[in-house]
Amino acid sequence: MGDEEGLACGVHHALGGHSIWEHHDQQEERIYMDYNATTPLESEVILAITEALHDAWGNPSSSYRPGRKAKTIINQSRENVGRMVGGQAEDILFTSGGTEANNLVFHTAVKHFWESWEEAEKKGQEKSHLNGKAILPHIITSNVEHDSVRLTADNLMKEGKADVTFVPVSKVTARAEVEDVMAAVRPTTCLISVMLANNETGVLMPVREICERVRSLNKQRPAPRILLHTDAAQAIGKVRVDVQELGIDYLTIVGHKFYGPRIGALYVNGPGTITPVFPMFFGGGQERNFRPGTENTPMIAGLGKAAELVSSHLPQHESHLRDIRLYLEQRLQDVFGMEKIRFNSHFPGSESLPNTCNVSILGPGLQGQRVLSSCRRLLASVGAACHSNRGDRPSHILLSSGIPAEVAANALRLSVGRRTTRGDVDLVVEDLWETVRRLEGQD
């Protein structure tokens, strides 16, 4: 038996006895493993949206029955979303999505800086120049944030409205380390924004530890207070998220990452009282004037139902996601061998999301996008969906996390969901094996 034939037989055995060619002539079932990009709506969420469309079509600001019904649904959803993250209903502001929520935080931080600075100047505590330089509000974030944070910060710099420090994540742990974040703090620092979980590596950031350190620092320093924000888009619905434990001022919530509709919310610890919020829009006074505009009642109803499901079932979901992801990693090792693959979601000393497997299949011509476009079953991505136009360029997040360029170029982000099964994993690994053999010219 030749080496190639022996390898094929070994893989046939590793794949659980399935012939790796038996599905070629059939209409392949597509298997979705891109749940970090978006999730389908749960049936209960669809029902909540549909009922709101039928029964709660009135303007929530009106006093007649359809309007009161809409207002009741919105209030209940606010309760559900607040409970999901360990906050109060009054701490929740509904937004069009995570991008708006993140922009609202950055907008608020800059405006709050100037109000605090001007108040201090009136009291003779501050000067309009510091060390000979004109004052600008200073923001700290990491270099692996979602574009809705990164580009917002970039734009503030380009317009001369803020200074920004992009703290590099460790090339060992892929985390924004606490000491590195604290070392970047200046007298003019007004906001620290570090994501709760990275969307490509799955690494959980030390947000609670950062908040502890900054809250202690805030007690010792004059205005402006450093505000604390985390984009929790990837974490909610996969791991426990509790704003009280984190000690955060703002937390971004994105419905379509936890089987809800494509709207979002912003948690604010005591909006307008304990924690500032300055609106970007002006209008009819909805959302206590923080985010005016007639409420999108059906989508808010869906978001509330999705949040309720997270609160009710998170332990089971987290356990299932971890089991399936570990099984996926084991099957990849069994079929390809450890010398042929590299996991880009394993970093010493770092915890990660239970559902995220970032893996590179090593070898020339096996760039991630090329492999995925050749797969017959697998639906996945090489990274964030908003970066899909970047072709075969390695992910800057992986490069920043210490992954070599030739490995990062071959990366696949496989993210499993609530209903992903071990059978799905078997078929996906088989599909990847067949695809790699074709691309390497072995079939």
3D structure, described in words:
The protein is an alpha/beta fold. 41% of the residues lie in helices and 13% in strands. The protein contains 13 helices and 14 strands. It has helices at 3-14, 43-55, 65-84, 98-122, 147-158, 178-183, 207-220, 243-246, 297-336, 368-374, 396-400, 405-408, 422-439; strands at 31-32, 92-95, 129-130, 133-134, 138-142, 163-167, 189-193, 227-231, 250-254, 264-268, 341-343, 356-361, 378-379, 411-415. A 7-stranded mixed β-sheet has the order 2-10-9-8-7-5-6, sandwiched between helices. A 3-stranded antiparallel β-sheet has the order 11-12-14. A two-stranded parallel ribbon has the order 1-13. The protein is globular and about 75 Å long. It starts with a helix and ends with a helix. The model is unreliable at 1-14 and 16-26 (pLDDT under 50).
Note the topology.
Elements: H1 3-14, E1 31-32, H2 43-55, H3 65-84, E2 92-95, H4 98-122, E3 129-130, E4 133-134, E5 138-142, H5 147-158, E6 163-167, H6 178-183, E7 189-193, H7 207-220, E8 227-231, H8 243-246, E9 250-254, E10 264-268, H9 297-336, E11 341-343, E12 356-361, H10 368-374, E13 378-379, H11 396-400, H12 405-408, E14 411-415, H13 422-439
Parallel strand pairs: 1-13, 5-6, 5-7, 7-8, 8-9
Antiparallel strand pairs: 2-10, 3-4, 9-10, 11-12, 12-14
Helix pairs in contact: 2-9, 3-9, 4-5, 9-13
Mind telling me the C-alpha Rg? 24 Å
The outline comes out as globular
The overall pLDDT, averaged over residues, is 91
Low-confidence stretches: 1-14, 16-26
Question: Total strand count, please?
Answer: 14
Number of helices: 13
Main beta sheet strand tally, sense and closure = 7 strands, mixed
Beta fraction: 5-15%
How many angstroms separate the termini?
Answer: 17 Å
- The largest sheet has its strands arranged as 2-10-9-8-7-5-6
Question: What is the chain-wise order of helices and strands?
Answer: HEHHEHEEEHEHEHEHEEHEEHEHHEH
Q: Estimate percent helicity.
A: 40-55%
Structural class call reads alpha/beta
